[in-house]
Amino acid sequence: MAPEDTAPEDLTPADPTQEDPAKRHTDPFDAGARGLLRQPGAVWATAGASVVAFMGIGLVDPILPSIAQGLRATPGQVSLLFTSYFLITAVAMLLTGFVSSRIGGRRTLLLGLAFVVVFAGLAGTSHSVAQLVGFRAGWGLGNALFVSTALAVIVGAAAGGSAAAILLYESALGLGMACGPLLGALLGNLSWRYPFFGTATLMAIGFLCITVFLREQPKPARRTSLLDPLRALGHGGLASVAVSAFFYNYTFFTVLAFTPFVLNMTPYRSGAVFFAWGALLAVFSVLVAPRLQERLGSLKVLGGSLVLLGADVAVLGFGGHTTAVVCTILSGALIGVNNTVYTELALGVSDAPRPVASAGYNFVRWFAAAAAPYFAPKIEEWTGSVRVPFVVAAVTAVAGALVVFVRREALDDEAEKLVTRHAAQDSVSVFAER
Known about the structure:
mainly alpha
C-alpha cells in the first residue's frame, strides 16, 4: 500500500462534525452490505448451488397432499419424508468435518451434490412411501455434506468479511426456501414426481458450476475427528445456542411440514403461500435482522422474535383458514430473523473452528427438524385435535426464548465478543479492499 494511503488524515476526520470513516468501516452491517455483491466466481457458484440445496427442503411442501394421494399414504407416513431427510442430515453433520478435512472442501461439495442428484432423481421414480422415504434419507446425506461445507467455503472465500459471508449464505437460504415451494407447485401440478426430477437437474447444473469456478480450498492443518463437533458442544455458549435452536427448529418445521395438510390447498395455492412465506424469510434474514441486531442486540432480538413466533403459531392453530394462511406467511419474517441470529451466534460464540462449531450446532438442531414432521401428525391423531400440534409448537418456541433468557449473562458476554470480532474483521477487510 502506498504511503499516502495510510496518511493520518485518511483515518482521522479533520472536522469533528463529520462522520468518522473508521466508524463506517467498523459497522458490520454496512461492511457486509458493501461487500455482498462484490464476490469472486467461486463464491457465487457455491451460493447458487446452496439456493438449490435449500430449495429441496421446501420443495415437497405444496405436493405433500398430492404425494399422499398418489401413493395412497396417510399424512403421518408422508411426513416421514422430512423425518428421514433431517435425521440423516443431523447424524451426517458429524461426518462433514471429518470428510472435508481429508479430501478438501471442493471435493466434499461435489460429493454432496452427487448424492443429491442421484437420490433426488431416484425419489421421482418411487412406487411406495417406503422407497421415497429411503431416497430422501440418501438426499439428506448429500445435503449435509454440501450445506455444512458450503457455509465454511463461503465464509472463507467471500470478500467483505464474515458479515458479508453470513448475509450471502442467509440470502441463499431465503431464496431457496422461497423458490422451493414455487418450483414444487409449478412442476407438482403436472405430477408429484416432476419436482424431484427438476431438483436433480438443477443440482447437476450446480455440480458443473462448482467444478468450473471453485478451486480446491486449503485443507486445515489439523484433521477433524468424528468427535470434534461433540467436543465443541462442551462450550457452554455453543451448547446453549444449540439447545435453544433445537426448540426453535421444532416450531419451524411444524409450520413447514404440518401446515400444508391443515391448509389443504391445491399445489398452486399452497406454493403461493409458501413462496410469500419464503420471500419474507429472505427479506427479514438479510435486510431486517442485521438492523435489529445493531439497535437492540442479538439476544434481545432473538428472544423477542421467538416469543412472537410462538404467539403467531398459536393463533395459526386456533384461527380460521384465512387466519392460518396469514399467520403462515407472517411466520416467515420471524423465522428469517431467527435464522440469521442463530447462524451468527453459532459461528462466533465459541473458540471452535467455524466448520466444527457449525457441525456441532447443526447436529443438535436438525434432530428437532426430524422430530417435528413425525410428531405433529401423531399428536393430532392422539388428541383428535388439529390445534394441539400448534400449541406444542408455540410452547417450544417460548422454550427456546427461555433458554436464551436463562443463559443471557453468559451469552451476553459472548455476543459482545462476537460483535467486536466481526467489527474488527470487517474493518480489516474493507480497509484492505481500499
